[in-house]
Structures are given as C-alpha cells and as structure tokens.
Write the structure tokens for this entry.
Amino acid sequence: MDSATTSRGVMILLLTSLLALSSSISLSKAEQGELHVVAKNASISVSILIDYGNGTIDWHDPLVLPDSSTVFNATLAVATVNYSHYPQGVFVDTINDVWNTSPYYWTWWYWNFTESTWSLGPIASDRHFLTHLDIIAWHYVNTETWLPLPHPPLPKAIVVDIDPDSLNLKSNGKWITAYIELPEGYNVSDIDRATILLNDTIPVDQFWVDKPLESVIGDYDEDCIPDLMVKFNKQDLIAILSSGEAIITITGDVNGISFEGSDTIRVIGE
Ligand SMILES: [Ca+2]
Ligand SMILES: [Ca+2]
C-alpha cells in the first residue's frame, strides 16, 4: 500500500468510526438546541489546546464563544485551518500550516472530567457542540499508536494569595501561608495537597498535608469563593529568596489537572 492509499485508509477509518458514534451525540445536539432557545445571546468560555506532538503546545484559555459553537468554530477562532467537507462532517487537513502526513493526523479530543483523562472526539469537529468550561485539544498524533495522549490540560489561572505580603529574611517564623482559589467548575477540596509545590521546589509542610480537609478549607477573604489554606516551611523559602520583589508560584493538581498561580511578595533584609 503506498502512502496515499494508507492516508486515505486512515481518513476513511476515522470518518467511519466517527459516523458510528454520531447517533449517541444527536441527543446532546438536541439538548444544546434547547439551551440555545433559553439563552439566545449567551456565551460560553472554553479552553482549547493545540498540541503539535513535538513538545510545542499552544493554549487558548479562556476562549469566549457564542453558546452554540462547535469544536470547529473554536478551532477557526484560534488557528489557521485547511479542511475538506465530507458527508460525515469537516475533516481538518492542516492546523497552522502543519499538514496531515500519514501516519500523523490532526485529531480532536475532549477532557473527560469523570475519568480525568483525554478522550478522542467521537464525531467530526463541526458536529460537536461545546458547553461552558469544556476543555478540548487538537493533537497531531501518530494514528498507528494513538500515543502519547495530548499534553495535560492547562495550568488553570488560579488565584493565589501568599500571606504575609512581605517577608523579612531574618524572620524566625515557622510557616508561610498560601490561600488557593480555583475557577468555576473546580473544587478546592479536590486538590491533592501532596502535589502542591511552591516555586517548583518546596512542598506543603507535611503537617498541613495531613490536616483534616475541613479545617483547611474556608473563605478567608470573604469573596464567596472557597479557598484552600496550605503552609510551607518559611526557612526553606527564605533560603531561596533574596531581597526585593519575589514572585511566588504555586503549582499542583486538582482531579489530575495541573493548576498554577502566582502572587508577589516583598522580601526585606539581606
Ligand atoms: Ca498576598
Ligand atoms: Ca475566598
């Protein structure tokens, strides 16, 4: 089989498997239609990843779209796309000048919040309607192995407040505190405290990893958004700081999705 035949074969296989699954999607299309009637002028906010499969990734987040947008609409909003029409829907040939080259094809995926993993889009991208807070990916993948999966979802823009706002390098205190708030759709009680790192190096003090969850979740800034309180060893932090402004970055995982957020503190002393 020459490569053109192989490539056509893969395309037909992709479209056929998409068609086979399309009946299960028609219900959600109908539901989407109903929603559209209720909220005609509403918009949705989604995240879209373009993963070139070579380490280069491109996140668009948040991407605000009309509420009846499809994966294809979202793609056109963030990338230059060449595509072909088939009875089963649109087939994407290139994204940002990267062409399908057998066995590598652009495939779209959605983040499965229940399973905390990527799932392959079951129908053509112009047939799948997006809902608010969906996370989708275009992945240039070897269709013989289908691996690796797309890059994990975006470090969501989270709110981090480091307390205190200024830190004396001679301070003797034991801990420095971080309050973490997550965007809509995520729950701070789902944060895995053992995955949290300050500036990629300092983990949460074990005492604060083990503490009962209910004692570290509150709303300290009274903005009606729950926050998780974690504490880090202050002397470990002092050891990596010098005087001036310091950006403190907190990373971690919530339901297997990485998040990242920063706050700035003033460092005093030598
Ligand atoms: Ca602060
Ligand atoms: Ca709060």
In short: The chain is about 20% helix and 40% strand. Helices lie at 3-38, 71-78, 206-210, 234-238. The radius of gyration is 23 Å. The chain has two domains: 3-142, 156-268.
